[in-house]
Amino acid sequence: MLKVIAIGDVHADWRNLSAALKAAYAMDANGHPTQPVLDGRYRVILMGDLVHPKRIEGYELLTGRTDYNWRDPEHLKSASRAQVRELYKLKDYVDQSDGNVQVILGNHDDAALEHKFLLGTALGVIHAEFDPTKGGVPLPEDLQAWFRTFVRYVRLNGIHFAHAGPTPGMMYFDDFFYGDPDAKRWWTDKPHLVRDAGHTFGVYGHTVMEDGIYIDSTNQFAMIDALEKRQYLELLLRDDESFDYRIEQF
Predict the structure, then answer these.
(1) Are strands 231-237 and 243-249 parallel, antiparallel or unpaired?
(2) CATH code at position 6
(3) Domains: count for the chain
(4) What single-letter DSSP state applies at residue 228?
(5) Cβ atoms 209, 225 nearer than 8 A
């Protein structure tokens, strides 16, 4: 039996990420993988978007500034530096896991690498801290190389884990992705896409779940971008490919 701990979009919420991993007994008090992770009995899957706080309050917490302004290069440097420090800690954790912690590439991770799109939110938060054309500081080269190893999906016993959704077009963050409303709305407008794609069950992030993790038991998928609600999804996968899942509150 394999336990899978799936954690939704991080968005530089290192405190809740650490708390979730420790609550799942996937990280010890010193920030290292626990023995069940090292043994391969536990698998951790992070659904991507490691970078870019969702809210201005997140940037203020990271930088210690109550007046965070994405147009100020000094503020951008502070935001970049704070995230880089925590990314190195997470990389160490992943590197120590013997391949049993996987990170799925999110569109914000991709944007921090490629700088093709300047992402923001409806609340006016602009994510420019890693974009040198906007006064930001690029990710260090070793972290860029690490980001490039992130997978676009994981499939275990017919269960599909991806950042945004079940189709190949939702795993590549180009003009089509950003122009297609399905990337955000498929789970309500076209929930049959998981079955259509041949998946037994799907686990996805990308779209904020204001009320916590959403599970569609009819169409067999979970939307788990709910780390700020202090939730993650736990799945138990059996050798006969049957499985159970539950929402964990920490």
Answers:
(1) antiparallel
(2) 3.60.21.10
(3) 1
(4) G
(5) yes
